[in-house]
Amino acid sequence: AWAPDSSKVAFSVFEQSSGHVNILEASFPKEPEAKEEGEEEKDKKKVEKSKDTKEEEETQDRNERRGRRERGGDKSEDEIQDNPAKVVYRFLHHGGPTTPNMIRPEYLADSRRMIFLTEQAGFRHLFVLDPVYESLEQFTRGHFEVYPLDMPEHREFMFVTSTKEDPGRLDVYKLDLSDASMTRLTPENGTYGSAAVSPDGKHILASFVKYGSLRELVGIDVEAAEQKALTDSHPEKTLAFTQAKPEPFTYQNRHGQEIHGHLFKPEGWKKEDKRPLLIYVYGGPLGTRKQVTEGNYGGDAYFFSWYLAQKYGYVTCTIDPRGMSGYGALFEKANFEQAGVPQVEDLTDGVKYLIENLGVDPERVGIHGWSFGGFQTQMCLYTEPDVFSVGIAGAGPTEWENYNSWYSTGTIGPSREGETDLKKYSLLPLAKNLEGKLLLVHGMEDSNVLYQDTVRVYAELLDAGKETNVELFLDPSGGHGLGGHVKRLGRYRKYEEFLLRTLGEGKTPTEAH
Predict the structure, then answer these.
(1) Which residues contact 340 (CB under 8 A, 6 or more apart)?
(2) What is the pLDDT of residue 174?
(3) Are 234 and 243 in contact (CB under 8 A)?
(4) pLDDT tens, 81-104?
(5) Nearest 5°: CA angle at 499, between 297 and 345?
(6) Integer Cα distance of 360 and 302 in angstroms
(7) CA angle at residue 341 from 394 to 349, to 5 degrees?
(8) Dist. CA 282–CA 203, nearest whole Å
């Protein structure tokens, strides 16, 4: 980012091996001042130097250029100057693995101080750095996250998005750069994504979604606090399928931390029921994304959950355990050197809460997830077999040394080239603990999570005598999200049949007889 007076440029560099973030700055010499009128004419009228004097100066110039070449280069005034950036602040990043990519310093109006996002306060907040004094001050604060959006040319304030009102929502705010006050600019309760603010700060464009209404582009008149839909892009019949609103819920895990979720209950539900439970989970870092958000119409978190609740009487829910992004550094970095363990704790505590409060049968608890959620599903079944009786694991990385180095190193733990340092986090040694029913799903042309991960764990389960506990569902031409021979609807048909066979329909034990 350039300083307003164009005298400096600043940027950040993350050293993953050491965990340090460097804020660097390069200064540029000011352009020579323009000569006043008449001075150039005066120069022309100067007496020409003698021939001998010119030859002497040319010889001196040649000698100087020769010396510069010998010292490492011949640079003329028209060439770019060698002006390396200097580290003006250095700190240890002890937060989530996806946060360093979001650390982008911006200059304030004085062209000296910088404002940028860090997790040093436990949540993603804005801090102000004064390189002259090497001082760093927290600017925004609270148990929520703030993401920089834009800054007007005058730099009196900054536009940001934030989860200040609710962790499941995203709003746009005007942040006063003199006193750090935040003024909410978005008038409705929901999720405002891909927001853009007009240069004068009077208008906002964003994609807006909430339960009961699908995502559309909206325009916001900030001064009038009015919002208008600018697009109408969904067929009328789709609206009938998006009127169901999941119920939000929260509970405290065993460490006193608040865990968020939302759920669907079947018609005729009573607290004393003994219904089958199906949990959907992801569990890994996603930048700023999470599952429990206002207007999440995902197939797993919304449509399939609602379908099972209404047709078969299940209690279905989505839970964001530790390990997810958007809830602070403690959550996003939770997997480091203990992959999947905090999530198992939080999900187990969630099952206990749902049994006590939502009419759930403790003998019929299912869980499913995709990618990191596929790994997490298996972790739950292998390490808490008395809690989770059924699981569907889609495309899960069961051996982290097979996954890409950047994600695995930052999320799970350090690894050396050519060494299987992440082998200790493999699910293979745990597979023998399976007692319930597990469906493994994978696309055989998956270039993200390798198909071999599912084959290896499947082989391990067979070697452990778990033939009747595990089933394999493969897409011969599918990628990470399937889509080859197995389309989305086909995947859910398989899920439906498997769950009805293993968990049964949503009747209480007395009704079943």
Answers:
(1) 283, 323, 375, 376, 379, 425
(2) 95
(3) no
(4) 677 899 999 999 999 999 999 999
(5) 70
(6) 19
(7) 95
(8) 35
